[in-house]
């Protein structure tokens, strides 16, 4: 469906450009956007590679296990039916920690692994389990202390103060995470 929406928007834009005589502007925009996209991808590749590497080092040195054990009270509150020995547990902790430190891209692989492990417990059901719903809500709310990706985007596009987003980002994500925790409590109090 989203592909149809994008295709329709592009088609409307091209038709409008043809009808108004601005096709040269569209062509220039396509070329400029392509160049910007490649530059941004190269910049973000370096940042993502560095942070994914740091996360991998933290995992291999046992730091992630240590952080996961520190998160145990929070995890028990949010996921009362999930055992710390569950295969998804450490992936979930890794995802939450990566999101908190602003590494959204580094948080995605452990989130996918956690969902795969949680899906195994769901015994082929087409409906998501409570743990899957709570984890998804928390992942979407994404509490972040330092929004690394946004700071990198702002720096790439020439912002004078790329880190000015930190305080508003903390406020916004604290609010969204508070709502997510409230929803988690409601989900956990309801039956399956």
TrEMBL record:
Transmembrane spans = 37-58, 133-153, 165-187
State whether keyword Transmembrane helix applies.
yes
Q: Which InterPro entries match?
A: Gate_dom (IPR011642)
Q: Which UniProt keywords apply?
A: Membrane, Transmembrane, Transmembrane helix
Return the Pfam families for the record: Gate
Describe the location of the Nucleoside transporter/FeoB GTPase Gate domain by residue ranges.
42-152
Q: What is this protein called?
A: Nucleoside recognition domain-containing protein
Organism taxonomic ancestry? Bacteria, Bacillati, Bacillota, Clostridia, Lachnospirales
